[in-house]
């Protein structure tokens, strides 16, 4: 039991670390995204590329430009599950608005309950267990909890991979190097907008 509990703590810390990295990367992508769009327009002007025409050809039904700050967050419909309902019941007993007796902690407990409810609905087990760990709520089956955490860790690792595969991310890593920026812009124009490269004389 103690071994499984310690494994739970280890996995939860790993999940938290990945989650913080994902949040940090998302902020970077938001900031760099604005610079990327401006740099892309400048690059096209410098290379005599009609980006507006490429946009209309590639995305005839789109009003806006294709996203360049996508952080890989994909919202997929969830299949209802009965997993961890016992854990959620323990949370509900402690944090449900009708159960709160300590008025000075009312907002904090409401927030914890909402976080757990959302995690349960979306099957974000790392978020659910974060509440469990923070408020020292006992878990009856650590093996099941650990298996769910391991799956959530893989999910977060995949989201990080997607973030780091975006053109925005690669552009940010160029750190102003002209050759690197040229390469990223050329690949973006070819792969996303279907540019065929410079016209041959």
- The count of strands amounts to 0
| Percentage of residues in helical conformation | 55-70%
Structural class: mainly alpha
The whole-angstrom Rg is 23 Å
Q: Number of helical runs? A: 8
| General shape | elongated
Question: How many domains is the backbone divided into?
Answer: 1
The largest pleated sheet is described as: none
Distance between the termini: 74 Å
Unreliably modeled segments:
67-79
What key attributes describe this structure?
single chain; 201 residues; mainly alpha; 8 helices; elongated
Please provide a written account of the structure.
With 201 residues, this protein is mainly α. The protein has one domain (2-68, 83-191). It has helices at 2-46, 51-58, 85-95, 106-122, 125-134, 142-163, 167-173, 178-191. Helix 1 (2-46) runs parallel beside helix 6 and helix 4 runs antiparallel to helix 5 (125-134). The radius of gyration is 23 Å and the shape is elongated. The relative contact order is 0.17.
Compact summary:
The protein is an all-alpha fold and 201 residues long. Helix content is 67%, strand content 0%.
Write the layout of secondary structure elements.
Elements: H1 2-46, H2 51-58, H3 85-95, H4 106-122, H5 125-134, H6 142-163, H7 167-173, H8 178-191
Helix pairs in contact: 1-5, 1-6, 1-7, 3-4, 4-5
